[in-house]
Fold:
Amino acid sequence: MASDADEPLPPPMRPAAAARPKRHVLLTMHHSPDAPLAPNAQKVLLELKGVSSAASRAPLDLVAVIDVSGSMEGDKLESVKKALLFVIHKLTDQDHISIVKFDHEATRLCPLLPHPVTEASRARLEGLVGDLKTRGSTDIRAGLQTGLDVVANRKITAGRAASIMLMSDGRQIEDGDPRQFEPGNVAVHTYGFGADHDDDVMTAIAERSLDGVYNSVPDSDNPKELAVAFAPILGGLTTIVAQDMELTVTAIQGEATIKKVDAGTYRLRTSSDISSSVTISFGNLYSAEVRKVMVELALSDRTASQSYRASVAEVQYRFAFQGQEVTSRPQRIIIYRRRRASADPANAPLPVQTEVARLEHVASIKEAVAKADGGKLEDARNTLRAALEALRRIVDPVVDMLRRELRKLLELFETEETYRNQGRSAALSSISSHGRQRGGPDKDTLIFGTPRMITNLEQAKQRDDMPVPSADQDAQLELEERPGWLQDVLPVALRLLAAVLSLLAFSIIASARTSGWDGEYYGRYEPYRYAVAVNVIVCFYSIAQVFVRIRRSVSPQLRSTSCYRVTLFLDQVLAYLLMSASSAAASSNHLWVSRFGEDPFHAKITAAVWFSFLAFLALSANALISTANLFSRI
Structure:
């Protein structure tokens, strides 16, 4: 195969590719199941999720565009160098990287080189990074144009994803407004360095690209902090499973019209009649990443009709994979129209309510920034407080992160100084993240995080002497840890088994009756009551853990180390209590038989103790699994 690089590609070192998955993208629709026959508005939430394994991802052509103008002198440029080295180490042998530097003019330091799998090529790239020095004024447009030229002049494009990383303080000096630069269909992810960087410029550049995100990089000499800023987006770029993703929504004529489509900052194309068809262009979709589109439909008047199943709209998506176009079958949005149905938005499904809350949350942040920019900082804080209060009514993991995001912004909006130095860029980064539904504004509120993004964040925080795994090594580890009977099915089965066994145990003990159970011989029966209480707790705890397990598989953000610590602690404590209760009940039962002989009461208690002991074994097995889960993440 021909190469874009000046040197030949090294021999392939990747393991054999995984079998091509049957499905790359999953479409889910959330809406009220029924609606009245009278004219009404219905909100429909459409979710596209990348369900393909990251092992079958698109190779990456990455162009790093580096600002080396005089304003980047000192800590800014040193931070850029450290961040760029982290990026280089994460790439694999199927990825290519080019470095472009710019001041008042732009220079391509190297073409799209293959990943540095050899010491010589690694030393070459690291040497290029180390030799970067500041000079001259700033022309961001020149740097971006040179980066786009590198992408446009690629010899191999089929099945490969191209992306640009712009690292700058955004302080344009030369003629021309970089905010008006048109990057076409290439994603430009911008990273603003320094507390004085121009966040308006960096945000505008990212938003004018197809699916780029603006990121604010903290002032820090610590390479870990810099790596944390780059880890989420890099985790996405090395897990692209669908390119040129588009979603088309078409209203069924006579049944409904499209009133509004909210897809964040992604591009919309409408038909000549906007109410009939809308197409959203998403660019690249990462593995396990979700794109949400809120569609508001105006249902037509059907008061003269009887109840019926109405097809109100049609949804279809398309994308490219390995150079091939993939188009889904059209899917209908079906709502049962009946006379007594309610159109109250409060009756909408929880995912719809959560997304509505998120969109209102973003609008509140935008309003707060506008007020703070106008010198009304206290009004801006009041807006954020009101947004925080509005989220109280919804219980959802995503909403929990929205609350954390607002609390952090309230801290950064505390004074004019903190707002200028950190608050404004943090708020704009949040708005950019929400607009693209990608990553998160910082490591603590990775609202749109994927498993690979979370893995990259954990790696970025590791000790300096620990090597940074490549994206290929991450993919191999994910394949080894893919959900299987031992990874997910067995823990859930054990939790259910513990719940059933403890339910049987306390039910049998509670049903056993003999003289003195509720009377004057309370002390004789106290161990049995102890066993009942512990088994009740274990039953409800095990059921709760089943739901936690399911939510962890759906929401990667819940897979934090602290969650596994709490689970391990509770497993050990309850396993001890269950063994203690079972032993106490068994001892008392043995004493009962020695005094009164065998009877139906004794037989029931014996069966209950066995069920309780088996529940202890199931809980102990789960404690071992919790230990393995915890230590695999430390």
About this structure: The mean pLDDT is 84.
